[in-house]
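User: As part of a screening pipeline, I want to sanity-check one entry by hand. Below is the sequence and the SMILES for magnesium ion. Please return the complex as structure tokens so I can compare it with the automated output.
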Amino acid sequence: MIEIKDLHKSYKMGSNSLHVLKGINFSVKEGELVAIMGSSGSGKSTLLNILGMLDEADSGTYFLDNVPIKGLNETKAAKYRNKFLGFVFQSFNLINYKTALENVALPLYYQRKNRKERAEKAMDYLSKVGLAEWATHLPSELSGGQKQRVAIARALAADPKVLLADEPTGALDSKTSYEVMDIIQTINDEGKTILVVTHEPDIADMCKRIVHLKDGVIVEDKPVKQIRASQYV
Amino acid sequence: MFDRDRWREIFEAIGKNKLRTFLSGFTVALGILIFTILLGLGNGLLNSFLSSFVDDAQNVMFIRSGNTSKAYKGFQENRKIQFKNEDFEFIKNNYIGKVEFATPRIYRDGLAKYKKESGSYGIRAVHPDHQYLEKTIMMNGRYINEADLKERTKNIVIGRLVEKDLFKNESVLGKMLNIDGIQYKIVGVFQDSGGDNEERLIYMPYTTVQLLFGNNDYLDQINLSYNMTMSTEKAIAFSKQIEKDLKERFRVAPDDQSAIRVYSLAEDIKETMVVLRGIYLIIFVIGIGTLISGVIGIGNIMTFSVKERTKELGIRKALGASPGSIIAMVLQESVLITAIAGYMGLLVGILVLKLIGNSLKEFFILNPKVDTGVIIVATMILIFFGLLAGYIPARRAAKIKPIIALRDE
Ligand SMILES: Nc1ncnc2c1ncn2[C@@H]1O[C@H](COP(=O)(O)OP(=O)(O)OP(=O)(O)O)[C@@H](O)[C@H]1O
Ligand SMILES: [Mg+2]
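Assistant: Here is the complex for your manual check:
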């Protein structure tokens, strides 16, 4: 599903540049649930953004579902993001003037689905994260956990091939974190490929594989025995 | 542009961001409002200025004759120059394309009697074209027509005040009016903006007067209007040409000032035009100034709006919005707000002008009004420049990388 080879990325800051990713080799098969760990500044978000086509690598190759991702123009990148990728951010990034349902329906709008279909699908995914009754509420009326569940529903609405989550539980307490992880595991059980960036070892243990980043390279990549979040919920 | 779904998305964004919508709408509405009112007041100024000219058509020339003041080509001085029908025909037919309407005039007075009422009135014997030259407005019935001329009928058209004086409230059409012992049939009643004197007149066919009084073909005066497409300079030259031709025709010395005189309003108009142009220029400058400030206002608001929405736009891009769709969204929103707000500003402006009405008459502002066409054009210009002003921030918004827009502060 994901295939990267010798990926490099530096940020230019004035005259000197900061080499953040220094040759990442990494592949993810369909249906995997991968945790990306590492200390702050190790390049986790940078890697995830490149995988999400939100940013571009300086060198190296990247195949997503056997499609080479290189030198895409903005319009093409937008199309691929819409078709292949779902994002979940630490700070939710919901549109504050749209209701939960409208937020979830937004990726479908960019897929040019008609209004009725959008509403139906969005409602399906909201039910899936247990928020059907909150459909008409604005993000400001939802708790952090609920917001993140709306964000997950939104990421799933376009039926992407890969779900990318950058510290999805970073802003949540442990109980809500487990609720969110429970949903992520359920989705993964249904076959969706998911990458989760996290700091927290207990969250990482709820995945099936942990990748450790340090100073821009992968220092450890091991499968783990998955701990089910449902037992804590 | 005409995607219903996209408009719905925009309506939603507008409806749910009331402050932003209000701010940008307010700027535009205010701009159009001020523009409308200023333009209306300017037009009011123009109207009061023009009202001194509206009595007659503005492209009129009067040709009068008198006695020669010089001996010329074997003719004695003090010879009376008398216009006749053939001279009228000459004027009418000799300047095809330049003369629009032409009429002779024969002046008379008469004592008109109806039942117990009577009064003395001026009589003008004319050609049907006279109606257009004098801007006579028919209230009832008709004007003198070609058939009247041909058959030398005793049909007359009376002024509104003649009717009021003699007939009180009776209906007059078809009634007979006795003028100096001759019975005439009233076929029409007119009004004229030239004042009471102009409405105490009686018009009849010039051929009838020639038959009844002297059985000759004499004319007192010839009036004509020239083609409006002629510039003022050309019109003045044209009046000089007519004067020259007539002087030759009657063997009058070219520098004889009293025998034949062609008087043209064009000369007055030329001076008027300078003032008019000044007023127009002021209106134009004010209008452009208002529009420019409106455009700058929209540009600022759009920049502000895009900045405020950076995060939202980043989210949209992450979810699959193309740069083009971001630009279109921002622009469509701005156009929609501009159009609606502009329309509201226009309505309020027209209302204000209506309320002002003629209350500023003593400040030389008469009937301030705006041409809706002008305002529509102004709104379109505003929308166009609104688009232009919105395009720069919209493009910047479209170029923002989603990660930058999404980065936590
Ligand atoms: N746009 C940028 N311009 C310059 N430097 C950047 C940019 N984005 C990230 N960096 C730097 O690159 C390095 C890696 O950043 P990144 O966000 O990938 O780290 P991270 O592993 O996600 O850290 P955290 O756990 O704190 O989120 C950091 O030193 C960061 O300061
Ligand atoms: Mg990070």
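Points to compare against the pipeline: Residues A 44-45 surround magnesium ion (ligand 2) (CB under 6 Å). Chain B has a mean pLDDT of 86.
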